[in-house]
Design a protein that fits this description.
alpha/beta, 2 domains, 7-stranded parallel beta sheet, 6-stranded parallel beta sheet, 36% helix
Length: 422
C-alpha cells in the first residue's frame, strides 16, 4: 500500500515524499483513514512503528479545511509526557504541514513561558504541549479551548506512569465535550482502558502488534557481569565493537551523570539526558548525539520518550528497569521501521527479579553471553528461588580485582514522580 491510497491530500503526499517515506507502516495504514473519517481512535502499537505520523497527517488534513483560529484559540491539542517528545511531535507537524496554511506551536517546561504566550496570542491550529506547562498557560489566561476540534493523547501509558492522570482529568474538564479524541499508546493496560472509556466516544480500537512485542529486527543480548564492573565492560564493548552511536539507559539520574564522567575519562564522548538537566542542556546533548559529536547518550526512562534517532544501531541497558514494560520501550529506540538494531543488557546478580519479569513480559528466555575476562564472580540465576544455573553461565574461578570504575549512582534516584514544570 502507498500513502496515496489512504485518502491524504496532494500537499501532504508531497511533504511525506520529501521526508523520504514511500510506504506507510501498519499503524499508519490503519489509523489514517479512520482519523480522516472523524471517528475517535484508541490505537495501540509498540515504540518505533510510526504512531506520530499516524495521527499527525490526518489531523493536519482535517484542520486544513477550516477557518483560521482566533487570538489565543487552539483548534487541535496534542498532549505528550515529555519535553523531548513534544518537540519531536511539533517538528513532525511543521514538516508535514509545510505546504499548507497551518500554524503550530510547542509548549513545555524548562524554558521561558513568555515566548510561548506570545505565539499563542495570534492563535494556533495545532498546539503540542506537556500537561504541566499547558495548565500554567491556562492559569495565565494565555489559551482558550472553546474552538478545539481535536484532542490527541500521545504515549498515554507513559503519562499514567509519570503520574499525570490528575492533570489529564483537569485538562479534560476545560475542553469542549464535542470533539474528536485520539489516544495512542504502546500498551493497553486496565488503566489505559479506564482512561479511554472516560475520554473517548465509541472509539475504533486499532491494535497492530501484540502488547509488549519486540520487533524481529532487534537482536537482543544479555551479558552477565559483576555490578561494579559494568562500566568497565561497557567501555570494553564500545571500543572493541567500534560503536559510535550508543543509547545507554541508566536507572537513576545520579548514575547517568556518574557513568558519563567515567566514559569521558576513558576517552569516549558522552552526555546525559534526564529530568534534572536544563532544557537547553538536554537539547544540546540530543543534538550532539544525532549529529555524531556525542558517541554515547546516557538517558533515564523518563527522559527517553522523544529520543528519535534515525537508524540508531545500538541500545544498552546499563541497569535493567524496575518496570518490565520499560524494557520494551527502551530497546524500541533501535530496529525502527524495518532497520536492524542491537539491544545489549548488562546483567548483575541483584537484577535477577527484573530479568525474570522482562522474560515474562516478552514471552521468551534469554541466553546469557559471557564476555571473556568479565565472567561474574558468583553464579547468576534469572529466578532467585531456582537452583538451576542460568543459560551458559559459569562463574569465574579467579575473579579479577575490582578496578576504579565502580558505579556510585544511588539506586531509586529516578522516581516516577512527575516534574511539575514538565
Amino acid at each position: 500500500m502507498s500513502f496515496g491510497l489512504l485518502g491524504l491530500c496532494d500537499e501532504l503526499l508531497k511533504a511525506v515524499s520529501e521526508q523520504g517515506y514511500t510506504t506507510p507502516s501498519s499503524i499508519q495504514s490503519e489509523a489514517i483513514p479512520v482519523v480522516l473519517s472523524q471517528r475517535d481512535v484508541m490505537a495501540v502499537a509498540h515504540t518505533g512503528t510510526g504512531k506520530t505520523a499516524g495521527f499527525t497527517l490526518p489531523m493536519v488534513q482535517l484542520l486544513s479545511g477550516g477557518p483560521s483560529p482566533q487570538a489565543q484559540y487552539v483548534r487541535a491539542l496534542v498532549i505528550t509526557p515529555t519535553r523531548e517528545l513534544a518537540a519531536q511531535v511539533a517538528e513532525s507537524v511543521q514538516n508535514y504541514s509545510r505546504h499548507m496554511n497551518i500554524r503550530s506551536a510547542a509548549a513545555f517546561g524548562g524554558v521561558r513561558i513568555e515566548p510561548q504566550i506570545s505565539q499563542l496570542q495570534e492563535g494556533v491550529d495545532v498546539l503540542v504541549a506537556t500537561p504541566g506547562r499547558l495548565i500554567d498557560l491556562y492559569k495565565q489566561q494565555a489559551i482558550n479551548f472553546d474552538q478545539l476540534e481535536i484532542l490527541v493523547l500521545d504515549e498515554a501509558d507513559r503519562m499514567l506512569d509519570l503520574g499525570f492522570i490528575d492533570d489529564i482529568r483537569r485538562i479534560q474538564m476545560l475542553l469542549p465535550i464535542k470533539r474528536q479524541t485520539l489516544m495512542f499508546s504502546a500498551t493497553f493496560s486496565k488503566e489505559i482502558k479506564s482512561l479511554a472509556k472516560g475520554m473517548l466516544n465509541n472509539p475504533v480500537l486499532i491494535e497492530v502488534a501484540a502488547e509488549n512485542s519486540i520487533v524481529d529486527t532487534i537482536k537482543q543480548k544479555v551479558h552477565p557481569v559483576d555490578k561494579e564492573r559494568k562500566t568497565e565492560l561497557l567501555i570494553h564493548l564500545i571500543k572493541k565493537n567500534n560503536w559510535h552511536q550508543v543509547l545507554v539507559f541508566s536507572r537513576t539520574k545520579q548514575g547517568a551523570d556518574s557513568l558519563v564522567l567515567q566514559l569521558k575519562n576513558a576517552g569516549i564522548s558522552a552526555e546525559s539526558i534526564h529530568a534534572n538537566r536544563t532544557q537547553h542542556a538536554r537539547t544540546r546533548a540530543l543534538d550532539g548525539f544525532r549529529n555524531g559529536n556525542v558517541e554515547v547518550l546516557v538517558a533515564t526512562d523518563i527522559a527517553s520518550r522523544g529520543i528519535d534517532v534515525n537508524q540508531l544501531p545500538c541500545v544498552v541497558n546499563f541497569d535493567l528497569p524496575y518496570v518490565a514494560e520499560d524494557y520494551v520501550h527502551r530497546i524500541g529506540r533501535t530496529g525502527r521501521v524495518g532497520t536492524v538494531g542491537l539491544a545489549v543488557s548488562l546483567f548483575s546478580k541483584d537484577e535477577s527479579k527484573q530479568l525474570q519479569s522482562i522474560e515474562r513480559v516478552i514471552g521468551r528466555k534469554f541466553e546469557c553471553d559471557i564476555i571473556p575476562g568479565f565472567a561474574p564472580s558468583e553464579r547468576v540465576s534469572a529466578d532467585s528461588s531456582d537452583d538451576e544455573e542460568y543459560g551458559n553461565f559459569e562463574p569465574d574461578p579467579k575473579p579479577r580485582r575490582r578496578g576504579q570504575s565502580q558505579r556510585r549512582g544511588s539506586r531509586g534516584g529516578n522516581s516516577s514522580n512527575r516534574n511539575r514544570n514538565n
